[in-house]
Amino acid sequence: MNIPPPGASFNIAQHLLAANAARGAKPAFVDDLGALSYGQLDERVRRLAAGLQAVGIKREERVLLLMQDGTDWPVAFLGTMYAGIVPVAVNTLLTADDYAYMLEHSRAQAVLVSGALLSVLTTALTRSDHEVQTVIVSRPVAPLHPAEVEFDTFVSARAPLVKPATTGPDDPAFWLYSSGSTGRPKGTVHSHANPYWTCELYGKGILDLRESDVCFSAAKLFFAYGLGNALTFPMSVGATVLLMGERPTPDATFKRWKGEVGGLRPTVFYGAPTGFAGMLASPNLPSRETVAMRLVSSAGEALPSEIGERFKRHFGVDIVDGIGSTEMLHIFISNRPDKVRYGSTGWPVPGYDIELRSDSGGPVPDGEPGDLYIHGPSAAMMYWGNRAKTLDTFQGGWTKSGDKYVHNADGSYTYSGRSDDMLKVGGIYVSPFEVEATLVQHPAVLEAAVIGKEDAEGLTKTKAFVVLKPGGQATEEELKAFVKDRLAPYKYPRFIEFIDELPKTATGKIQRFRLREREASAK
């Protein structure tokens, strides 16, 4: 690889804007209400930056970004960083108590918020001891209070900032909060250089995004995955992005695929396994001829091979599965558009080194699960205000992912599960994901989640929670036999419970710890 590193003075917002200086008239972002050209984006970013400085927000102070996807989101994110201020992009599906914690934890000096989320923010502010200077409201849905200002009014009130804040590649640029499936979410601090490396190594190096592409991501911009998909990657090549504020239901996604919103049909789609499963089960699944996708990406959780194969049969396009994390900002192990091995996560992305370590920290042989560690240039700087967890996760240039993986003879890696989800049955590790991926191959099964359950003798056995497809029918014994025929005998689920839906995070990841809690409370 011959990718030049960022210079000593580097501002990621300025870098992305400068890359598109000659594309002023081209649509950069398109949402339900209209389009924002690259030229308009440049001007609005610099106006917002000037406004934030004018109200007294200083370099490296934080601003909470609580906004639904739309053309104001990239203006807010880039404009904040252009001024040397640090945006804290947060999940729009959380509670007022969550936002109260994040306001206090980040010490945010201002909030950029969508009008539809203003009421939950107002509640959060009343529950927090922390005061903010300014609340800037995008697309208000009701009259604003005197302490609040409308986004367009705020942006238009100042002349564009002439030049960006002089930041370096290692200066803090933005925060993303981890999902926080147990305990409080962690404020993950990323530098100005980190998005540069993910763009070069993955957006260009693996996905080969093009200026002619129209990109559409079901994962929202506040996720690390969605941020690369629908902002930094497309801007790095001058592509156009279709943004959607509503939830990515199958029908809402299909409307965008078919060009019914904004008149654009995406050539690149980024999704997650749960979403793909729901779409493939939908009676409204579009035909191959009505969509324009040339590239489809998946991350967030491991992709069952059955889902990838069914998608390929229907649309003629492979799903390129990979694994990334909030801590590494984007994907570091991946299949390739021209090299897909379903059932595996693929091969290390050039620029990233991978190690699998045993419980004692030593190497593990091929075919056996080990703890996944990553070394690469996009690793986060720290967890804000959490030294113990920072030292545990970021270890001498290596980042501990918390995942278990198996290294295969062809150099690819296969997911075995989260380290805290792995089961030992009869003294042998069993991957919940392997059992789940087998269960969803049954034609009646939509989703499955596997945990450990003690039998009458106090020994750990596998238990599966199964969600059937609409109209699908299967018995417990039928599913047990189905798995027995495909996996080693000790792996089949000894217990099966049919439920209506699985507990999930806002990103669609299965929360197995909720199922363990449910099982414990049933004793």
Distance between the termini: 56 Å
Helix/strand/pairing class, anyone?
A: alpha/beta
Major beta sheet summary: 9 strands, mixed
Q: Strand share of the residues?
A: 15-25%
Please estimate the helix content: 25-40%
Report the average pLDDT across residues: 94
Number of strands: 27
Strand order in the sheet with the most strands? 2-1-11-10-12-13-14-15-16
Coarse shape:
globular
Radius of gyration: 23 Å
Uncertain residue segments: none
Helix tally equals: 15
Structure description:
It is a single chain. By secondary structure, this protein is α/β, with parallel strands linked by helices. The chain has 15 helices and 27 strands. The strands form 5 sheets. The chain has a 9-stranded mixed β-sheet. An 8-stranded mixed β-sheet has the order 7-6-5-3-4-8-9-19, with helices on both faces. Strand 23 (423-425) and strand 24 (428-430) form a beta hairpin. Helix 2 crosses helix 3. The longest helix is centred in the N-terminal third of the chain and has 17 residues, at 38-54. The radius of gyration is 23 Å and the shape is globular. The N and C termini lie far apart (56 Å). The mean pLDDT is 94.
Which key features would you list for this structure?
single chain, 523 residues, alpha/beta, 28% helix
State the gist of this model.
This protein is an alpha/beta fold. Helices cover 28% and strands 25% of the residues. The strands form five sheets. It has a nine-stranded mixed beta sheet. It has an eight-stranded mixed beta sheet with strand order 7-6-5-3-4-8-9-19, with helices on both faces.
